[in-house]
User: Fold these one by one.
Assistant:
Number 1:
Amino acid sequence: MDRGQRERVERAYAEWAGCYHRLMRRTYHRVERAISRAHLGRHLPRNPRARLLDAGGGDGEWCRWALAEERAGSAVLVDLSPAMLSLARRRGARGGRDPVLLRGDVGNLPVPRNAFDLAFALGGVLSHLLDPGRALEEIVRAVRPGGRIVVSVDGRVVGLRTARDARLPGPLREILRGRAVPLFHHHPFPFPVRFFSPDELRAAVEAAGVEIVSMIGKPVFTRFLAPEEPLTEEELAERVALEMAFVADPGFLPYADQIEVIGVVA
């Protein structure tokens, strides 16, 4: 990433950080995060000695979840954005166990080889990088053989819907070909975004030397079920239960907004 690209990314995420927590309180994002917590809780064993890398971890939600749930005993969060790292720092000031915060590029992680037992790249991180393949290789490099990684990407249906609604036939064709596309005025990030099909994500993860343990799509139904309507905790649990009944169904994976994979490093 050259200096100009880095500066554009930093400006975009500085703006994003200003509204991040407000957006994450919306019903759609509450459901999406609850699905991930259930998925991770099902497949990641408790290990209070495990070392966690949170690549592109933003405000630190996921590494703090792992520490609180004893899926890890220590964590390092790497993010390029000073604004998002500031959010993570302020979040730590409210209590709980704190990760070590490092500023860095997920495509060139400032961590040693085989230094971690577990790595996260959640929130569609790989979709929002200029070279997601390189970033995946870096994440795998940082995890010891036998360690686990968890990654999520934006599903192809999101790009198709965005390009369709904006009446952008050129990007629509590129998305169908599996290429990254710049949706500058119709997507919150000022760089090309890669939207993955389930098969593309599976191929990328396996090519990086990772054996897939679980693949889910999330969410599938909430987009169509009043995604902005506030839900009580009981209603949220019912919505998540509906989603969880179908998240691993291969027939629904292509229609999910995000695809999430848990795998073991060879």
Number 2:
Amino acid sequence: MFTKKMIKLLILLAIGTFTFISCDDDDDEHSHDEQEAVGLNLTVSDTIAVTQDADGNVSGHLMTHENSATTVYLKFIDKDGETFIPHLDDGFSAHYEVGDTNIAIVHDVSGGTSHNHGDTTSTSHWEFHVQGKAAGMTTLKVRILHEDHTNFTSEFINIHVHEASTSGGTPSKMILKNHSGAELATTNADSTTGMVMAELNTMTHIFVSFLDSDGNMTMPDTTNRFVEAEAADGSIATIMNAGNDSAPWEFMVNGVAEGMTTIKLKLVFLHEGLHRVEEIVGTPIQVHVHTP
């Protein structure tokens, strides 16, 4: 049988335990809130292209071409030198300001959200595209917004836009590459080579470049043009097309279930912005969805 003294002791122990846990939780929350950006890294094709350190010194620049888009992955640096992304659930988002939008524009393809190739439970980076409009140089500023105020503003980051290559002719073949630039497959109206490997429950980013009939690299005019992919079996893989409003030469393959299917890739032109013309229709490309 419990005595009054024992009951009081148990109550005191329970209160002490609750207080310890609550304080511990508060410490975790406080530590999370204290992670503030003092710098950033911008990564292109697995290489850090731009770094801003804690003193505001910027090294490197972003580069793209006319009528082309470059994918950039963004992480911030805290006072301890650790990279991180603010938690979106806490009301954070990224904002991009380009000095001269006649030279380049920026598309936030993450939709103002974190992006981790299909993993919605964690965050690896924010992602945006720099699209070249005309040859020249302009600047970019990156901000962290928290609800109605700015938490961090980068220094000016240079963007160099180079002239589009004019050595190639009319596109006749499409080349599929991964985010590192490795060739995965080619396709045109007559044949296909290679295969796309996609991991289960993961978004695989595909970039498309073009060859003319002589085998020279070429780049279509982005005005009302974009590539469009379609999966034959949506129970194995689905497609997220970027479309002509963001990154016209890119799409993503989402691995839904292990197995094999095919995708068909098209180069689409909207004549006068309305009438659809399929300029290249590739033969089906095999897609293998597998467990990592």
Number 3:
Amino acid sequence: MTSTGPNMNGIVVKPATRQSIRKRCAFTLIELLVVISIIALLVGILLPALGAARRSARNAVCMSNIRQMTIGLVSYSDSNKGYLPAAKAPANASSLNRRILWQVSIWSYITSDGIDLDDIDAPYEYLAGTAFECPSADDQLGGYSTGDHTQNGYGLNISPLGSLGVGDFTSKTGLYSSKIDRELEYKRADLVVSPSSTLLLTDDLSYLVEYWHRGYTNHLQLGLLGAGNGMLAVINRHGGKGWNIAKFDGSASSTPFEEVPGSTNQLHYSATSALSPGLLLDAPHNIVDPIGKMYWVGRESR
């Protein structure tokens, strides 16, 4: 216990009471406000940086997914006389007489995990948490889908030529006027004239993709097919500027909207006026230029 007494100078020193100690240790209101302001400032500085780091990490994972799937598709092609898997394979005994998506066809090239053939139908839950889903799918239009997991992943280009044969190019009414034909066909990589210039795989809201999925504008518009479907619906996965895309030569890159060609005619993105690959090739160059034709169909003319 501290006693009261004179110090060496004869001055009486009183002991510190608990109340005075507490009073000296407390923050003033101004000090608290300063601390809170500093914390708020730091949070304001760090949050955008953390968000950017998170987006960058997710984009890297997405790009890795794209590359894995591209390797899987090329490996499948090497094992099947140059044919790629159909976007939705025709019924056969191995799939219990049901349609199987291209992801199932290359499954063994991507992962050693098994797949239950009883689970190959919608909502395709076997895709959840795999390389077949984009890690940024929760940022797309409508958010992450649990009702159809193909909407969280990537689309395979169904416009290039394949197992139906070159003969379709000689017919004005041919060349896959039926989307079902294009969807069920096994594409041939060797019929793509410039593999480095032709899209193979991309971020998409479907398991398949065609030029009109790109959308007429990178601003979502009501009445346009791309506004609620395809590539345009998922453009926010990677900052609203573009998509991660792989080409037939195996290359992959983040591609801005402006570098993905399409038609200059806005009507060609409507539900009733989207062009088949044959009509895309027949279009005048001021509507669909040679770069756009090569990008989607794998050649510039029939």
Number 4:
Amino acid sequence: MAPPVTVDGLLRSAEQWLGAEGARYATDSPRLDAEFLLADVLCVSRAELLACLREPVSSDAQRSFAVVLRRRADGESVAYIVGTVPFLDVTLSVGPGVLVPRPETEALAQWAIARCRLRGEARPLRVLDVGTGSGALAVAIAHSVPYASVVATDIAEAAIQRARSNARSCDVAARVQVVHADLVPSTAEPFDIVVANLPYVGLAEASQVDPGVMRHEPLDALFADEDGLAQIRRLLSRLPQHMAAGADVGLEIGWHQGLAVLAMTRSVFGTNAVRLERDLAGHDRLVLAENVGGAGTSDGATVTSRRPLSWTPSPAGCGPQRPDAVRDR
């Protein structure tokens, strides 16, 4: 009689198979991916899974695990397969039609949350999340800042429905309004804080995008013309009339776009309160304009680049680890 298949044995074979042998798109983190997937199949946490490595796995569970492994080997992200991804202090539902929120985007959320808290509760606080996708930024900000009211925009119906669902499941639907709009909504009320994680991968970079992302995630949420800057240009041209005096703007950008987006932001706001932030890998990642718009705008432009951003990434294995999904940067 053959010995029972244990959790440890199943993970070991899955790690080897995902890493090279059977995967159409080999993953950089085969063991971690296998752990998240098996934990989901067994309806336990990853910590609980690792505490019972010697326990046998039923035949039904083995078959279910084989199915999800084949999906992962075909390039589908762990987040799509399990249906959720952690983002700061919330858990978001994800699936076809929306990009998987990347750990780098958590830095933009943390910046916005800090700016909200700096303003305090003296008056109602209005936040705009442009191109919300899954609603990650809008939901995380509303969850952490209970006195903030967030308007989230998108043009994709799948994204709008997913963002609304995430707002409901995270108990912030009363303060997160998800609307169909091309970048900026038609509203008379100005915004205090604007965040945007728009498509910023250039068509010229298509060969560098992770093949699994190209196969499974929405490409219109990734690409923006040849240089990747088309949507950012459009947004910056429209923003000033929708911003309150002394407003803040945070833009997520591609790894090589820092100088170009700094110049564009400077030309719009004419301010010295614009800076470039780099991620932990040293890549350009955010352009931040603070205390701009209305009476907050000042003349003269001195751009500074500060120390790299510091934040705690979401657990690995929940999709590609860069928001632009471009490899080897």
